[in-house]
C-alpha cells in the first residue's frame, strides 16, 4: 500500500545551493506565501516539487521529490531524500522515482509541496481498493445500479434489494429457541394494515390471563382465579364481585390504573380473597359494601401446615373504600387475616394504599380497621406509606385503627375522622410493632405499645364539654412502649394528657421508656406502671383553661423521671395554675426536672409532694419556678 503524504498550503522556498540530479541532501529556506515570514514544514510533509513553473510557462526542470525526513536549524531546512525518491512520476500511484526524471537545479530554484501528486495518489489508491474510505459515502439522490445478487456465502458482497427480498420474505428461516427467524402473531391484529407484536415493555407480557370488560380472557377477577390463572392483568374498567374469591396458588394481580381499574365488592361474607400460598395485588381500586354481621378480612391467608405451605401477601398502590351497611356491631375489618391453625405466613407488605372506612346507612355502630387480625401473629409485616381514614360521621361508639402483628409501620397517615358527641375513636399500636415517622389523629385516646421513633400523634375532635367519655378517658396511654422523638398533641383541651402504665411489677421488665418527646396541652399526667423511664421530654402549655390544676402523679414503682421540662400556661389571670407533682408510689427516682408556671398568683408556684416508700427526691436537684 502506498503511503499517503500530507501537503501544506502556502509553503514556498528556495534552494540555498544548487543540486545535481543525484544529490540526496537538499538545503532550503522556506517561508509563508501570505505573510512572508520564515516557516518550517510539518514533519509529515514529505512530497516536494522543484521548478514547477506555471501552465503558461512550464519549466523543463519540473521534478517531484519524496523525502524520508527533514530538519530545520537557523532558518535552513535540510531535506533528506528517500531511497529512489528523486524523479517521481507525474501520474499514477507509485512513490518510487525514476532516475531519468531527476533533474539538476540551480541555487534559488523554487521548491513547494506536491499537492497534485498527493491528490492523485489518494484518489487512485481508494478507487482501486488499495486503501479504504475514511468516511461514509454520500450518494445524495443517486443510486448504485448493476449489483449482482450474491449467494449467502458471499459475505463480503453488496446485498441488493432482490437478495433482501428473497431472505426476509421467501427464504427466511422459521424462528426457534436457537434461531432468529420468521414467526406469526398469536392473534389477528386489531388493524390488519398495522400489525403490532408484543414487546418486553408491554404490560401484558408475563401474564397468563387478561381481565377486561370486552376482548379479554375473562370478565371478572373471580373467574380468572377460579380457572387457576396465576398472573392476571386487569384492564381499565368497572367490575363486580359478589362472592368470596379463592386463590389456590401463588398469584400476581395487577391493575392497569389504580383510579380507573375498579372492582365493586358486595361483601356479605367474612373474607373477600382467601389465598393458600401467596398473593400480590397492585394498582386496583376496590369499593367494598359490607353487609356482614361479624368480623371481616380483605385478604385471608390460610396456608396448609401439613405440607409446610407458606403464604406471602403483598398489597401495593391500591385504593380500598369500605362502606358498612349493616346495623350490627362488627368488631373489625382487617386488611390481612390469618387462621390460627394455618401454616406460616411471611413477608407481608402493605404499601402506598389508600384505605377509607365510612358508615353511610350503616346504623350507629362503627367498626375498627386492623392492619392484621391478630396481635401475636408471628409473620413479619411491612406497613408503610399508607393512608387510613376511619370516618365516624354517621355513627356512634368506638371505631378504631389498630396496627397489629410483628409490623414495621412507617410514614403512614392514620386518622379517626368526623363525628360529634358520643363518637370516639382510638389509634392503637400493638406490642410487637416498630413505628417510624407516622402522622396520626385520634378522637378518644391512643394505646401505645411497641417501638416508636419520630412522627406526630394528635388527639383531635370536639371539646370535652361535648364529649360523652369526658377528659378522664381522653389520653395517651403507654404500656410497654419505647418512644423517642415523638410529638404528642392534645388538641381536645382534655383533662388527661398521658398515662404510663405497666402490668408486671418486676423491676427493669415491661416498663415504658419515653425520651426526647414533646407533649402539648392537658393537665393530668399519671405514671402508674413499673420500671418506666421518662427523660428529656418537654411538656408545654399544660392547663390552658381557667382554674386548671395541673397534676403529675407517680403511683407505680421503680420508675425514673428525670431531666424533663414541665411548663403550665394560664390564659385566665384569675384562675389557679399550680403544678402539683406527687410521688405516691414506691422506690421511684425524680430528679433534675424543671417545673415552670406562668401566672401572677402566688398560689401558682409548682410543688412536689413526696409520699410512698423509698422514693428518691432531692429538692435542690429540681427547679420549681413561677414566671
Shape: elongated
Top CATH class of the largest domain? Mainly Beta
Number of strands: 52
What is the strand content?
35-45%
Helix count from the secondary structure assignment: 3
What's the CATH topology name of the largest domain? Pectate Lyase C-like
Structural class: mainly beta
Which whole number gives the mean pLDDT? 81
Low-confidence sequence ranges? 463-471, 503-509
Residue share in helix: under 10%
The major beta sheet can be summarized as: 29 strands, parallel
Distance between the amino and carboxyl termini:
101 Å
Number of domains: 3
Radius of gyration from CA coordinates: 46 Å
User: Any guess at the CATH architecture of the largest domain?
Assistant: 3 Solenoid
Oligomer: single chain
Note down, in words, how this protein is organized.
- It is a single chain.
- The protein is mainly β.
- It is 5% helix and 40% strand.
- The strands form four sheets. It has a 29-stranded parallel beta sheet that branches. A 15-stranded parallel beta sheet has the order 9-12-15-18-22-25-29-33-35-37-40-43-46-49-52, with no helix packed on it. A six-stranded antiparallel beta barrel has the order 1-2-5-4-3-6.
- Strand 7 (209-211), helix 3 (221-226) and strand 8 form a beta-alpha-beta unit.
- The model is unreliable at 463-471 and 503-509 (pLDDT under 50).
